[in-house]
Amino acid sequence: MAPLSERQSSKGEATRARIVQRALELAARVGLEGISIGELAQDLGLSKSGLFAHFGSKEQLQLDVLDLAAELFRASVFDPALRAQRGEAKVVRLFENLLAWVHDRGQPGGCIFLAGAFEWDDVPGPVRQRVVEWFEKFNAAVARAARGAVEAGAFRADLDPELFASELHGVVLKYHLELRLLRNGKASSLARRAFERLLADAR
Amino acid sequence: MAPLSERQSSKGEATRARIVQRALELAARVGLEGISIGELAQDLGLSKSGLFAHFGSKEQLQLDVLDLAAELFRASVFDPALRAQRGEAKVVRLFENLLAWVHDRGQPGGCIFLAGAFEWDDVPGPVRQRVVEWFEKFNAAVARAARGAVEAGAFRADLDPELFASELHGVVLKYHLELRLLRNGKASSLARRAFERLLADAR
Fold it and tell me: Per-residue confidence at B137, pLDDT binned at 50, 70, 90?
């Protein structure tokens, strides 16, 4: 059996993970700022002070929520795309995984990064910084996949991977709006047709 | 001089308009839900109950804020585009006005409809409904401009105006994210190049 301090620490870790998981569900619905320590504590059968002791600040909890979302995103969107063949297949897989992420994640809720993008664009500090860094990494990863398709000869040599990544993300952002806010039955077909045009122009 | 009741009513209207204007500025920064009656009252030198009496509910104030934003949007984006010649010029004008709206409106703050889109997508009720109706009208108006360009012979006959409008809006959404959250110095050039590709494919 592990020593007592280790068992306590791993119990602490498990509780902390459970709090962050629940906070992510809450944040997807009400935004990162809307996370209420009191509501969380009640949901999880913890005292407010006990819950708070795990993080020390609401900001740290918000950062942990973003880090958990980033892990889930990587596992749902990037990792499966990495396994696809380099070239157009990887770009297509990335796009389809993004649509699935927008469609499935946090029902109800939508993408926490997008909620964060519009909630935090004017609020300086570490949470905004974390959201910004995440989107910068995201942009770079999509551009890298497009560059791979150029190098594999699937996309034309003069394609600008950064522009392609930007256009692809625009299609996904519109899909999010049409699907989640407008509940437009054509959201998916509009997104796929826009993406088909992007691909056709990239080849 | 106007009768007393009329003067009182017009004074009431002016106060109400001043409250809604200030609430819009606040909402652009903190979201519609973040509007605090107490903060508003303090800002405007009114009592909370006096301010509240003008609307009867926070929800009514939120609806009034959206209606004011819709008026400003129409005056900044749609009205000037209406005066442009039908055809490609009108579509280009609409796009440029949209970029200017995202760039200029509510510094700091960003577009209140987009903030609303991500804040309210899972909150049923009249505010969500108002945001949804606004975006539906917006989509229809952009598609109408694209249809006008087809009818004027500037865009190809088999262009799908709804798809074109959806793609154009995707470019604007990405521009908002890059400009306001990421403060990407290339936001504008990426948006314009994406739009140029859209136009080239539409001709």
Answer: very high
Closest CA to A165 of A102, A98, A67, A120: A98
Give the ipTM of the model, two decimals please: 0.89
Min Cα–Cα distance to chain A from B61, Å: 20
Average pLDDT over chain A reads: 88
Q: Is residue B141 part of a domain?
A: yes
CATH of the domain at A52: 1.10.357.10
Q: Read off the pLDDT of each residue in B109-113 and give the average, rounded to a whole number.
A: 72
Model confidence pLDDT, tens digit, residues A71-98: 999 999 999 988 888 899 999 999 999 9
Q: How far away is chain A from the Cα of B39, in angstroms, using its nearest Cα?
A: 18
Neighbours of A9 (CB within 10 A): 12
Q: Are A28 and A105 in contact (CB under 8 A)?
A: yes
Domain count, chain A: 1
The values of phi and psi at residue A47, to 5°, are -80, 155
| Cβ-based neighbours of A115, under 8 Å, separated by 6 or more | A27, A28, A31, A32, A109, B118, B119
The Cα–Cα gap between A6 and A3 comes to: 5
> Does residue B31 sit in helix, strand or coil?
coil
* B32 within a domain of the structure (yes/no): no
Question: What domain range includes position B137?
Answer: 59-202
Residue type, position A82, single letter: L
Q: What's the pTM value of the predicted model, to 2 decimals?
A: 0.90
Is residue B178 situated within a structural domain? yes
pLDDT of residue A85: 84
Token pair belonging to A202: 């990239």
- Residue of B33, B123, B181, B184 to mutate for A, most A C-beta atoms under 10 A: B181
Note whether residue B77 is domain-resident. yes
CA A184 to chain centre: 22
Distance, CA of A156 to chain centre? 29
pLDDT for B110 equals 65
Give the pLDDT mean for B110-126. Answer: 77
